[in-house]
Amino acid sequence: MAQGITGEKYWEDRVAFETEGAGQEVVEYGDVLELNRFDGLPYSSRYYTLLKERMDLPVWKAKCDFMDKLANRQFIIVSGTARTGRSSQIPQWCAEFCLAVQYQNGMVVCTQVHRQHTVDLALRVADEMDVNIGHEVGYSIPLETCCSGDTVLRYCTDDMLLREMMSDPMLEHYGVIVIDQAHERTVSTDVLLGLLKDITLQRPELRVVLLTATHPGPKLLGHYKNVPLIQLEGVCSAEVVYTGTSHKDYFCSALRLVLEIHHSQEEGDIVVFLATTQEIDLARDILLREEANIPTHLGELLPISVHPGLGGTLPMPGEEEGRCRRVFLTSSPNEDLFWAVHMLNFVIDAGVQKRNVYNPRIRANSVAIQPISRIQAESRKQLVGPTGKTFCLYPEDTPLPSETRPHILESDITSTVLFLKRMDIGGLGRCDFIDRPDPEGLMQALEELDYLAALDDDGNLSEIGIIMSEFPLEPQMAKTLLASCEFDCVNEVVTIAAMLTAPSCFLVPSRELRLEASQCHLKFQHPEGDHFTLINIYKAFKQNQHEPFVSVEKWCQDYFLSLSALQTADAIRSELTDILRRIELPVSMPSFGSKGNTLNIKRALLAGFFMQVARDVDSSGNYFMLTHKHVAQIHPFSAYGTKTPKLGLPEWVLFHQYSFSEDNCIRTVSHISPEEFIQMAPQYFFFNLPPSESKDILQNILDNGAEHYKAKKLQKSPSLESIPEVTASCVIQ
Q1: Which of 222, 201, 200, 194 lies closest to 432, judged by CA?
Q2: How far is CA 179 from the centre of its chain?
Q3: C-alpha distances in angstroms, 678 versus 450, 614, 688, 727?
Q4: Residue 45 clears pLDDT 50, i.e. is over it
Q5: Which residues lie below 8 Å from residue 49, measured CB to CB, with a gap of 6+?
Q6: DSSP 3-state helix, strand, coil percentages of the chain (rounded to 5)?
Q7: Which of 348, 379, 424, 721 has most Cβ atoms within 10 angstroms of its Cβ?
Q8: Is the confidence at residue 320, as pLDDT, over 50?
Q9: 416 vs 422: CA distance, rounded Å
Q10: Under a CB-based contact definition with an 8 Å cutoff, are residues 422 and 475 in contact?
Q11: Can you give the pLDDT at residue 32?
Q12: Where is the Helicase ATP-binding domain (predicted)?
């Protein structure tokens, strides 16, 4: 056990030794250089330079206290903003702790919420520890792993650690698990916190460290009984200015403040917290136009979009130079991304955020603009030093929620339930959630998994469910991929899955270029719908990628396509193909374009997305969704969205996404026939559909056969595709 090997005295001596060593370039004992304890090589002079900077961080005052508690307690909570150095220093100390016991209990893993933050931290910590990235210090993010057998400290996203538990349920590879940004309360973090409570009972040697931005709330403290709390002293508070702007005017007020700061010639970069991705892009376009009118002597104003979840490399310390003022335009939850920007001197906080709230009754997200929490507001104020300023675009007496609302209460948890079932947690009994999921959302998730044949009669995972859980996809898409193996169209469906999992490949240009962009996108349009259009785009991308005299980057620019999104889709496709081969499922040869292949792709899509079918009820583009009786329109970016009803919209469609509150549109739409739907939908799902005219039409087809329905529709649709007679049973069960 670690208790007999480490203790407060050891770590006090170690800190004193490092303090002494930091004052000189090289530490020698006679003719012997001090060796790095992690790789056995002499420390470089840069190590001591960085050590001086590290020891000035507020977190260093708590090192002895932390190491003593780590040696004697299983759970520790450390609270402090990103500027305290919590995310970079505490994992290093945990690595020292594991080294002191010769890694007999395992290595260190530190989870993060953001992919880019994960990589940035790993690079910074490898530099501070004077080791090579990918060796002693590594990272794992979706689609990218940089680790080796020598790795003793690994940064990873919280969802990556969850997937690792599928093969290592007790996380026996690790001696210390650091859960950073626990205050964000993401679904993956909450599941980890619930599972770790049970794992520590079975592994008393395991240490769990929770890092939060501010003082943890009573729920988190109460979840772990008598857990020690270390509160880090933050940097001196900057000047805070409350402007009293109303929520409707924050966007214009933020941009005016940016220009006023720039004209004042006060030094420092600016970070602006807005609410939505659309606001970020619009603000960047406006500032770029305004920059052309700024006098040269004021210097350049460079707006930089930093979208949540999409990364965008931020500069490391020491990289800021030149007479350029950068304006980082971002939104929640990106508060921790700016720890490395030393020139940051101004924060403009709109005080609101965009939240996607899942409604299980209609299986769709509603978008809500809500106030940020007090934790987020405080984190934003701490981003600048004592000489900086924070402008809060809301009245000082605005009531802000004390904590960030847990995402597990507002998200579709079908994937989470599938994972927990895979972990053999029937009924969620062993996952001690801080906030239990909404009962209605839980029931909807179990119902959906049952419809997808992922559960057996006892409510446990079926064979299909076990295979579905192997894929890093939404359950409906995983079922579609499995169905494609039976219908011999894996090559095409794996492309669709990759393109829909990656960010959108379509760039949204400025208003004056939108017509040109639309004309470019029309060149890839497929008559059967958007899913098939995505295959055309991917095939064209790969073809141009292999052309020796074609710049794929310029090709993407010319066609208003996102190179990074297409590269991500390519990587996802490779990962999915590798999984298919690993579990020995067949991968078909390409046959895109043939009539049989088109029909098989639709069947595979319907095997997973039969719950997302709609019918044009009045031949004018008003689509009635069978599962919840809402009516929506096809999104303008769809291949069908640009058509008028007179040009002929499909009567029956399958859609990938429904946005309820933003624009009430269905997105990524492809044409299907009612006979195909009846063939692929489980019989008990069909019978559970609410009463409607559309259901009556389907029932009529079942009772009288497809030919009777075709005869009635002949005048309206003379070119209906002939398909074989079908039954009510589901092909894939």
Answers
A1: 194
A2: 16
A3: 18, 13, 13, 7
A4: yes
A5: none
A6: 45, 15, 40
A7: 348
A8: no
A9: 10
A10: no
A11: 57
A12: 67-233
